Amino acid sequence: MRSDAPVRVVVADDQEAVRAGLVLILAGSPGLTVVGEAADGEEAVALCRRLRPDVAVLDVRMPRLDGVSATREIVAEGLADVLVLTTFDLDEYVFGALRAGASGFLLKDTDAEGLVGAVRTVARGEGFIAPAVTRRLITAFAATAPAASAASRAAAAELTPRERDVLACLGLGLSNQQIADRLLMAESTTKTHVSRILGKLGLRSRVQAAILAQELNLPAP
């Protein structure tokens, strides 16, 4: 996506009133354009295949194909980055969506500004988890997740000491600015490290990196 191009969004929610509200907020925000709406997961996947949006905003509880399964298909095919919405901050569906490769997680009671900001953050390739539950969500996920695979451990071993520190900070749920402050470096440098970490580990988002950091039990820097 060009930096000056509008962020193209597909919105999927089985509740018509909720979906209409999401579309109204996003379509009325500068730099965002809603290119499609879906009432269930199957329709969302089909729209993403046809329209190739930048971001798919999906409710996790939908008929025919739930948000987790839809996320898995969309991510596996590289159709869009996914931002999942849920009513509950530790909904079991959210864990499944993150495992499936979702780039972000947001509560439905988030205000309009928060929704727009989350979509823009995900479109930039940065993962997003609702700030109020970031650390709790990552910790709870890691507690139920299996130990990191041998391949993941081998890939992590190839990181530089600084990259391992940044990865550990991601595991604490810290933002780029918080990591920069903690490690005494510029925020732009942090972004570069995060990008390199994702590339070396073969991950799609900082959310997945945070979970891996917990699985690796990296010590806090």
Automatic annotation (TrEMBL):
SMART domains documented for this protein: HTH_LUXR (SM00421), REC (SM00448)
Domain Response regulatory: 8-123
Xref: SUPFAM superfamilies: C-terminal effector domain of the bipartite response regulators, CheY-like
Transmembrane segments: none
InterPro entries documented for this protein: CheY-like_superfamily, NreC/VraR/RcsB-like_REC, Sig_transdc_resp-reg_C-effctor, Sig_transdc_resp-reg_receiver, Tscrpt_reg_LuxR_C, WalR-like
Keyword DNA-binding in annotation: yes
Matching Pfam families: GerE (PF00196), Response_reg (PF00072)
4-aspartylphosphate sites (modified residues): 59
PROSITE patterns from the UniProt entry: HTH_LUXR_2, RESPONSE_REGULATORY
Keyword field contains Transcription regulation: yes
Keywords on record: DNA-binding, Phosphoprotein, Transcription, Transcription regulation
Alphabetical list of CDD domains matching this protein: LuxR_C_like, REC_NarL-like
Record protein name field: Response regulator transcription factor
